[in-house]
Write a structure and sequence with these properties.
Blueprint: H1 2-25, H2 34-61, H3 66-93, H4 99-155
Helix pairs in contact: 2-3, 3-4
Length: 160
């Protein structure tokens, strides 16, 4: 199954890069068709919506745990990504907003999303590191208790 998913992702990546060569070969100085831009923004919104739903469901499943405490960073990052996609639509709808302003707003929101996601993953790494350290320490305590019990029982054995 994993092999099929990798093949599908590779196929989609190849198909999305092939039109880039076709656009580069045309005489229109980098003009991208409007339908392609709208389609990519629509697919981006769908992907962000699925990611947002999964993140909120993860919060519900992991309530009370370390993931649920830090998931707000992930949710806010996904919301920033969704807003950055919407900035492209705002440029088309609002006459006072230029394409450069929309691109700047979109880039700022992507940067904010990346910072929030970095905070989420950093905090999760620290939390899981502390958890694993405590689990290893607990496992070490159990082993030392077991070895003391074994040595203590051999000394207390009758006939020793």
């Amino acid at each position: 199954m994993d092999r099929y998913v990798r093949g599908l992702v590779l196929s989609v990546a190849i198909l999305w890069t092939v039109p880039a060569f076709a656009f580069a070969a045309t005489d229109s100085a980098g003009a991208v068709p409007t339908w392609l831009t709208i389609m990519l923004r629509g697919l981006s919104l769908v992907a962000v919506a699925f990611l947002l739903v999964d993140a909120t469901l993860l919060r519900r499943v992991a309530s009370g745990g370390a993931i649920a405490e830090n998931i707000s960073f992930l949710v806010l990052g996904v919301m920033c990504l969704a807003a950055s996609v919407l900035f492209g639509y705002f440029a088309a709808i609002l006459p006072d907003l230029s394409a450069e302003q929309a691109a700047l707003g979109s880039d700022a929101l992507v940067l904010l999303a990346l910072v929030l996601l970095a905070l989420y993953f950093g905090r999760m790494r620290l939390t899981l590191t502390a958890y694993l350290r405590a689990a290893r320490a607990y496992a070490g305590v159990e082993k030392s208790d077991a070895s003391e019990t074994e040595s203590g029982s051999s000394e207390d054995a009758p006939g020793a």
